[in-house]
């Protein structure tokens, strides 16, 4: 039985942990090259599908896409990893995206689930949008070209693989990974449907060249859109702890072997290291070796638990969702653990 804790009884931090902005800045050469390739290819594309993480629908979407890639083509925003977020909030997310960002076509998907309703809806939606759009130089073409864009590690390649497998009964062809930056260049187009013929371009994940908001950068890091070692696993785990405590999500207490909520990341990681036997040997100045808790491995264990949903479903943008009272949303989150 899950023990319930009263958040009011604890004096948790009120501010997001401070991190130097340069640690959150990741715009390697392949991103700049990939963006230029995508812009050159745009004239041969009929529809743009932007993929983003459903746990952060308002955070971290690259404004460069809005400025240069989306305006002239039919656009669908696919919020992937819906299985890791709070399903009751999805209609409100759609309403706010339409009202504030004029995003008219929003789908929620789980690219690992062949029976996902969003995946079933995606093909007919893109076909309908393309048929009802001005295709300009491609108006006589019978095949449809679709470009997949988004920040790193939101499931772009997985989405193409699943659509290809679902529509054509062909095994997965694109490499995927849990680490940001697997796709590093604009790849050749992949056929994902025969009637009508639909081809998709997979593209590298591209972030903003500079991160202006620290918490935005930490959310992206927590959702694995930044490579962990660039920010630091203990830093990411500390932000996760801050967010969990701020929103009364206390599943981590049992998961990390604690007796009660704690706001000290070092204590949390030590407890987790003891529980999961994450130990490393160090050599003292006198040549003797001793065992100490491996805080890095403990941090990785905690972060992985968030990313796989073991700490419960999360909606990191709860403070950005404006269409309902925050207390109502908080109650739903508590009910989900």
TrEMBL record:
InterPro entries: GTP-bd, GTP-bd_ortho_bundle_sf, GTPase_MTG1, P-loop_NTPase
TM region(s), chain numbering: none
Topological relation to the membrane, as annotated: Peripheral membrane protein
Binding site for GTP: 80-83, 153-158, 205
Keyword Transmembrane: no
An annotated Gene Ontology molecular function: GTP binding
All copies of domain G, residue ranges: 145-224
Any GO CC annotation of this UniProt entry: mitochondrial inner membrane
Keywords (A to Z) from UniProt: GTP-binding, Membrane, Mitochondrion, Mitochondrion inner membrane, Nucleotide-binding, Transit peptide
Highest taxon in the source lineage: Eukaryota
GO biological process: mitochondrial translation
PANTHER family associated with the record: MITOCHONDRIAL RIBOSOME-ASSOCIATED GTPASE 1
Primary role: Plays a role in the regulation of the mitochondrial ribosome assembly and of translational activity. Displays mitochondrial GTPase activity.
The name this protein goes by in its record: Mitochondrial GTPase 1
